[in-house]
Write a structure and sequence with these properties.
The structure holds 2 protein chains of 2 kinds. Chain A is about 40% helix and about 20% strand. Chain A is an alpha/beta fold. A 6-stranded mixed beta sheet of chain A has the order 3-4-14-9-10-13, sandwiched between helices. In chain A, strand 11 and strand 12 form a beta hairpin. In chain A, helix 5 packs parallel to helix 7 and helix 10 packs across helix 11. By secondary structure, chain B is α/β, with parallel strands linked by helices. Helix content of chain B is about 50%, strand content about 15%. Chain B has 13 helices and 9 strands. Chain B has a 9-stranded parallel beta sheet. In chain B, helix 2 links the parallel strand 1 and strand 2. Chain B is globular. Chain B starts with a helix and ends with a helix. The chains are: A alpha/beta, B alpha/beta. Chains A and B meet through helix 8 and strand 11 of A and helix 3, helix 6 and strand 6 of B. Chain A: Its cofactor is pyridoxal 5'-phosphate. Chain A: It is an enzyme of class 4 (lyase). Chain A: Pathway: Amino-acid biosynthesis; L-tryptophan biosynthesis; L-tryptophan from chorismate: step 5/5. Chain A: This is Tryptophan synthase beta chain.
């Protein structure tokens, strides 16, 4: 079977990227998931419960908002897909609602997750509370410090937050710890991965659950512009779940330019960056073959970004394929520009975005979009969780 | 010649396999520790190739890898260190254990050639999928006479165990229970016993070594009741902690297990 952008091979490959590179200890879990995820997700009862929760609990469909002042500034037509209005404040919950239903059907009683900015951790803790399931979230010690409100949110929701103390003590290390937990608890535990990373079927599973974003975009664009297809879809990429969701139903539409925005930290080549599509080479991380930041010996390099959610040394295999095949254009945005993106979105539209999303906004000037072009930015999350950082960098923002 | 098969032919019971991380505690300890382990009576030796993100390992081995990487260990250095090893350690099988990514970056064919030239007999890569091994790497391994070792866990299905056994010509690595290396053995004894007996009853072609959670004489002897021998890693790494004379500590450790 030839893979498409939307559909990996049976073994989870998008071109040369993907697969399931996992120790034998995880093989039964991952294989069980691989064999069952598509059929479970196709069940009418699953779909009914999932769609109902998306509507009544998450608050979908999220609006597609015409950002007139931003549009005037950039002399193009900009729409914001308001994932920040989802319950828990970001797109992450689309995935956790779906995966908790999957976990229930697989007979699992305990949920683990990793989190960087804390948005996925909060979304996981939320659905665990909803379903009465035990929840353990791994988070890098550094991220716990810079995303304190989300740590408290998770605890309030009844989750146990465990600090990952190894490596750079950020998202990569939290992921390592979560995988180790899963190895130690192979029977009763489901690992809710928060992005389109990890061994197959996770990248495809998470992309399908986030695809609701682009599905809604098409309907809303038709109503608002008379065409289902925009000229540009722009989204930030750490692991890449919000981008995968925003791109999904446009992947096979060549007229739509897909723009993935990465965190360049202090500068792509400064040694403090997370711009994987530029700095990465093919390798294996967290169970899949993808583009990752590594040294010549294959040791994984510590990434850096001001934004905890983009601070990851790899990208999902679908995104590696999109970069490799040039189907998507990748733009790198430095910390300072992202902070200006925060100011711009806040002042011009009255929406305080998450730091991750601010990278996408900061890329607007580089698109080359004309006055008649329709640009959709996936506003992946809201900035409440980043307020401490915004206060710290007030000079750069104001 | 196959040193792994020879070792099992020579001593059919109670084989001790010791794991240590190359370049730990200091960069040039690799060869002295290897010699000391062999002299003290270790039947097989696993040399860990340090990796920044070792998924199947617990904190002890991860920490030793972090130190080894900071010391400057990498595959080129390791192969250089091992190049004359067979002059002083002629018979003890040496296995290289690590993760796929550093091996992929080195080039799998290149890696196998250099590993064989350095005297290695087998390779353990826990995150190398069985299907990928068969499709892409089996011929390369064979060409360089390197034996792959695969892990089996309590959750591995019988037909998969048979397939692993068919693909193996060295030994089967029985992971004692759920968990990463160096973890406490939390399984009820009866459960573990039933798992080992289930594997034993399958009458597999290859001998078995039990690993994970084995750390001293008592746990070694217990494991040896159910297999041809056992593997010790984290407990040995801990025994190297803060010692001045790593080879002497290695000898003391092996003696304490085999005594």
């Amino acid at each position: 079977m030839k893979p498409t952008y939307q559909q990996p091979t049976e073994r989870g490959y998008y071109g040369q990227f993907g697969g399931a590179f996992i120790p034998e200890m995880l093989y039964p879990n991952v294989e069980e998931l691989r064999q069952q995820y598509l059929s479970i997700m196709a069940e009418p009862e699953f779909q009914q419960e999932y769609q109902q929760l998306l509507r009544d609990y998450v608050g979908r469909p999220t609006p597609l908002f015409e950002a007139k002042r931003l549009s005037a500034k950039y002399n193009t037509r900009i729409y914001l897909k308001r994932e920040d209005l989802c319950h828990t404040g970001a797109h992450k919950v689309n995935n956790t609602v779906g995966q908790i239903l999957l976990a229930k059907r697989l007979g699992k009683t305990r949920i683990i997750a990793e989190t960087g900015a804390g948005q996925h951790g909060v979304a996981t803790a939320t659905v665990c509370a909803l379903m009465g399931m035990e929840c353990i979230v791994y988070m890098g010690e550094v991220d716990m410090e810079r995303q304190k409100p989300n740590v408290y949110r998770m605890r309030l929701l009844g989750a146990e937050v465990r600090a990952a103390m190894s490596g750079s003590r950020t998202l990569k290390d939290a992921t390592n710890e979560a995988i180790r937990d899963w190895i130690s608890n192979p029977v009763d535990t489901h690992y809710i991965i928060g992005s389109v990373v990890g061994p197959h079927p996770y990248p495809d599973l998470v992309a399908r659950l986030q695809a609701v974003i682009s599905e809604e975009m098409r309907k809303q664009l038709l109503e608002k512009t008379g065409s289902e297809l925009p000229n540009y879809v722009v989204a930030c990429v750490g692991g890449g779940s919000n981008a995968a969701g925003a791109f999904y139903h446009f992947l096979e539409e060549p007229s739509v330019q897909l723009v993935a925005v990465e965190a360049a930290g202090h500068g792509v080549h400064s040694g403090h960056s997370a711009a994987t599509s530029v700095l990465g080479t093919p390798g294996v991380i967290h169970g899949s073959r993808t583009l990752l930041m590594q040294d010549e010996d294959g040791q994984i390099t510590e990434p850096y970004s001001i934004s905890a959610g983009l601070d990851y040394p790899g990208i999902g295999p679908l995104h590696a394929f999109l970069a490799d095949s040039k189907r998507a254009r990748f733009i790198s945005i430095e910390d300072e520009d992202a902070l200006r993106g925060v100011a711009e979105c806040s002042r011009l539209e009255g929406i305080i975005p998450a730091l991750e999303t601010a990278h996408a906004i900061a890329a607007l000037g580089q698109l080359g979009a004309g006055p008649d072009d329709v640009v959709v930015i996936n506003l992946s999350g809201r900035g409440d969780k980043d307020l401490e950082t915004y206060i710290k960098y007030a000079d750069a923002i104001m | 010649m196959n040193r792994i098969k020879d070792a099992f032919a020579k001593k059919q019971k109670n084989l001790l396999n010791i794991y240590f991380t190359a370049g730990y505690p200091s960069l040039h300890d690799t060869v002295p520790i290897l010699k000391a382990l062999s002299e003290a009576g270790a039947d097989l030796i696993e040399i860990g190739m340090p990796f920044s993100d070792p998924l199947a390992d617990g904190p002890v081995i991860q920490q030793s890898s972090t130190v080894a990487l900071a010391n400057g260990m990498n595959l080129r250095v390791l192969f250089e260190q091992l190049k004359d090893i067979r002059a002083s350690v002629p018979e003890t099988p040496i296995l290289l254990m690590g993760y796929l990514n550093p091996v992929m970056q080195f080039g799998v064919d290149n890696f196998c050639r250099e590993a064989a030239a350095a005297g290695a007999d087998g390779v353990i890569l826990p995150d190398l999928p069985l299907d990928d091994y068969v499709a892409e790497y089996q011929d390369i391994f064979r060409r360089h006479n390197l034996r792959p070792v695969f892990l089996i866990t309590p959750q591995t299905a019988p037909e998969r165990i048979r397939r692993i056994d068919e693909l193996t010509d060295s030994f089967l690595y029985l992971v004692s229970g759920p968990g990463t290396t160096g973890g406490a053995n939390t399984q009820a004894e009866g459960v573990q016993e039933a798992y080992f007996q289930r594997i034993e009853a399958m009458n597999l072609r290859n001998p078995r070594l039990i690993g994970f959670g084995i750390g001293d004489k008592a746990s070694f002897q217990n494991a040896c009741q159910y297999a041809e021998g056992a593997i010790i890693g984290s407990a040995f790494i801990r025994a190297l902690d803060g010692v001045d004379d790593a080879p002497a500590a290695a000898k003391r450790f092996v003696s304490s297990v085999l005594a």
